[in-house]
Design brief:
Layout (H helix, E strand, L loop, with lengths): L1 E4 L11 E5 L2 E5 L26 E3 L5 H4 L2 H7 L5 E3 L1 H25 L9 H7 L3 E3 L6 E4 L4 E8 L7 E7 L2 E5 L23 E5 L13 H17 L4 E4 L5 H14 L8 E2 L3 H16 L7 H5 L20 E4 L9 H9 L6 E4 L8 H7 L5 E4 L4 E4 L3 E4 L8 H11 L3 E5 L3 H14 L4 E3 L6 E3 L1
Parallel strand pairs: 3-4, 4-5, 5-6, 10-11, 11-19, 12-14, 12-15, 13-14, 15-18, 19-20
Antiparallel strand pairs: 1-2, 1-21, 2-3, 7-8, 8-9, 9-10, 16-17
Helix pairs in contact: 3-7, 11-12
Bound molecules: zinc ion (2 copies).
């Protein structure tokens, strides 16, 4: 089997793998780097030049896995694309949103490459995107050989899948982004307990130890307590979230808490794509039963849209809870403007519930010391950090020890690390070497060909 990591920057970026099994040529995921811009944000497709793909597989609909798909589809006019049914329901909405964002960035930031694709292109390719149910084997035939593909529930977000691929006697497994614990909105991953020859495994939390006492249920309680403390001292709290998955999960947590009278009454602001995706989650829940969410949550929480024009330093005077994207507080997003408004005052709280790239404003806020001067450069605001900055271990990604256990159960001949910053991959490589001495652990260099 031949394997190339097309994610040109390593780390967690434009996730995409090229895999050749016999004469079958496939690509798994096709992401867009969250903080690079223009063509540099896509995977490097140069190894695919003149290589007609037989199949493209999408593990789930976060942009770091699908954001460059229309670019690849343009270059691969015949390759079919498969994904789970919930992902099929989400993917067009996600891509159209991305096209809007890129069109805006082209104008605001003068990025001539943008948009990388148009709304019209998304529509034209839509018929090539087909759903495959979890647990159903699909045969894909190449010129001479065939493979069998099966999706397994991966937790994480609606529609997320681990991908099992059989070719002759060999078995390959991609974890995709995975969470082995149940969330309010999504059931836990259900991965096969089987031997795999090759395992391609995410490592997002490889450098993060879950401290004792910070189990998910305790972290939910601590989040609710922090909301209460903040509102009661007259402050506001920002929870930056990814529009897909984290927003619905956090709204569900707050909704549950309010149902049992555990959270104080305060205005809740949420808007943008995430609110739209609440409707999609409702739809997916009714049609596929694969998530647990209803749009009633928005009604019962009386969620309000953000004021149209947000100016940093000016927020509604009352104490409020802001559940808004981007999750990494990327420049010029609602969470960035609200963070800029709250960061300089001790009564407010910035509460992080998911992964932040260390170089994004979210990552830098998490690493900053209290009292440090912080520059919100896009709004030309320099402020001393006085707000409480709190991290909650409520990530949509598996703990590193759970990934390690899964890898040990698979007894693979080779493990390929992916979707992790260098320290995360390094921890995982060391831990795997210690536990699986016969397994070859590969931390792939971008664009290098590996025979595994
Ligand atoms: Zn993801
Ligand atoms: Zn991801």
């Amino acid at each position: 089997m031949k394997l190339i990591d097309l994610n040109r920057d390593g780390g967690i970026g434009a996730n995409s793998f090229y895999v050749q099994l016999g004469d079958l040529k496939i690509v798994v995921d096709c992401g867009l780097h969250p903080k690079k811009v223009g063509r540099a944000a896509t995977p490097d497709f140069s190894p695919l030049r003149g290589v007609p793909l037989d199949l493209i597989i999408i593990t789930h609909c976060h942009l770091d896995h699908i954001g460059s798909l229309p670019v690849l589809l343009r270059e691969q006019p015949r390759a079919p694309v498969i994904m789970t049914a919930p992902s099929r329901m989400l993917i067009e909405r996600m891509l159209h949103n991305s096209a809007n964002v890129m069109a805006r960035q082209r104008a605001e930031d003068n990025i001539p490459d943008y948009p990388l694709f148009t709304h019209d292109e998304i529509d034209r390719h839509a018929s090539r995107l087909t759903p495959l149910s979890y647990g159903h084997a699909k045969k894909i035939r190449g010129a001479r050989e065939e493979i069998e593909v099966m999706f397994h529930q991966a937790g994480h977000v609606a529609g997320a899948a681990g991908v099992e691929i059989h070719h002759k006697q060999r078995k390959l497994f991609f974890t995709g982004d995975v969470l082995f614990e149940a969330q309010r909105t999504c059931p836990a991953a259900r991965f096969p307990v089987d031997h795999f020859d090759t395992l391609v495994m995410e490592t997002t939390r490889g450098a993060t130890e879950r401290p004792a006492g910070k189990e998910r249920v305790n972290e939910v309680a601590r989040l609710v307590a922090t909301i209460n403390e903040t509102i009661q001292r007259g402050g506001s709290m920002l929870i930056p979230v990814f529009a897909l998955g984290r927003m619905q999960e956090i709204l569900s947590i707050v909704h549950d808490a309010r149902k049992f009278g555990r959270v104080v009454d305060c205005p809740i602001y949420a808007s943008g794509l995430g609110i739209d995706l609440c409707d999609y989650y409702d739809d997916i829940a009714r049609k596929t039963k694969q998530v647990n969410f209803t749009r009633q949550v928005l009604k019962e929480l009386k969620v309000r849209p953000l004021p149209r024009k947000l100016e940093p330093g000016r927020l509604p005077a009352e104490s409020a809870l802001y559940i808004v994207s981007s999750g990494m507080v990327v420049e010029n997003t609602p969470s960035y403007l609200i963070a800029a408004a709250l960061a300089g005052h001790a009564r407010h709280t910035l509460g992080f519930v998911g992964y932040c790239d260390p170089e994004t404003p979210g990552g830098r806020l998490l690493a900053a010391q209290p009292g440090e001067t912080f520059l919100f450069d896009k709004v030309n605001l320099r402020t001393k950090l006085k707000a409480h900055i709190v991290r909650f271990e409520l990530s949509g990604h598996a703990d590193r020890d759970e990934l390690l256990d899964f890898a040990i159960h698979c007894r693979p001949r080779a493990i390929v690390l992916t979707h992790g910053d260098p320290p995360a991959r390094a921890w995982m490589a060391r831990a795997l070497d210690g536990k699986l001495s016969k397994t070859k652990v590969i931390d792939p260099k971008p664009l290098q060909t590996y025979q595994v």
